[in-house]
Amino acid sequence: MEYQDKSKKTDTKVVINDNRIAFYALGIADEAGEVAGKIKKLIREKNSVLTEDYKKEIVKELGDVLWYMTQMCTYMNVSLEDVAKSSIEKIMSRQERGKLFGNGDNR
Prior knowledge:
73% helix
C-alpha cells in the first residue's frame, strides 16, 4: 500500500476522468510491450544471456507496468494488495484442481 500511496502523488491526471481507465489500460499495454521488446532483444542480440545491466533495464520497464497498474487500481478504489491476494487465490485454486493449463478465466 505504501507504493500505491506514493505513486498516486505522481499521477498528473492530465487525462479527464471519463478516459482515465482507458489511458491506464493503454499504458499497461504499452509498457508491457516494452518489456516484451527487451526480451526479444535479449534473445536476438544477447543470445538469451541475461546480464545484471540488462536485468536492470527490464526491471525499469516492469516498474512502468507497475505504475500504470497501480494508477488503474487507485482509480477503481482497489488496493494492489487486494489484486495480489485475488490473483494468488485464483492461481492456487487452479493448481489444487489441476487446472493451471487450459483456456478461459473460469477454469
